[in-house]
């Protein structure tokens, strides 16, 4: 089996994010729930993917949940990604590997300077300048987490599922009012960060990635169509960061 065929795994706070590369080109991505044993891992892998989880195919793992990494250390094909090997300047010690990989993938694929907005369990902003040096960023609760906070910390508000359909700003029922409040506030916040970033780096690439990419894309296209034209929507960005990482360690 060619060493250019490999699996990538990002262990997130809510799900496992997988990718399969053939000839070092991204072929497929999918998500699974977390498993606590190798037997459970076999149960949650899609049938057409199980043949990839073999010792002959390298598995590159990054994780924001250190305790969940132990399972994959039992597999002989596992390489734990060390983001310290990524040549980004100014990365601080506690910066998440997901943010580092996404920023590196975004800059390498779409050019530096770049701003990466990752819309997952947390919504993060991470920017680097033309010298591949971290400028800084911000972290706040993501769409689903904000909705869950209202449900768990109030007596009367219902639990609301994030809907893919477009919700008007001025809602006429409680579930839609919750979605409107969360989504439009997040949209406004994202726009504010993008506007400020483009003031500093007018030629920068802007990439929105993560699990809520499609949801936020449809809102941006409807509410801020001109800004949406400047945004690259790429839900697979972190795996391109893994690919660039693999290329780095291959050369070293």
Q: How would you characterize this protein structure?
A:
By secondary structure, the chain is an alpha/beta fold. The protein has two domains: 6-80, Nucleotidyltransferase, domain 5 (2-Layer Sandwich); 87-239, ATPase, nucleotide binding domain (Nucleotidyltransferase, domain 5, 2-Layer Sandwich), CATH 3.30.420.40. 37% of the residues lie in helices and 23% in strands. The chain is built from eight helices and ten strands. It has helices spanning 38-44, 70-73, 97-110, 143-153, 174-200, 213-223, 225-228, 237-251; strands at residues 6-11, 16-22, 25-32, 59-63, 78-80, 114-119, 122-128, 134-141, 205-209, 231-233. The protein has a five-stranded mixed sheet, covered by helices on one side. The protein has a five-stranded mixed sheet with strand order 8-7-6-9-10, sandwiched between helices. A hairpin with a 4-residue loop joins strand 1 (6-11) and strand 2 (16-22). Helix 4 crosses helix 5 (174-200). The longest helix is centred in the last third of the chain and has 27 residues, at 174-200. The protein starts with 5 loop residues before the first strand and ends with a helix. The relative contact order is 0.15. The model has no long low-confidence stretch (mean pLDDT 90).
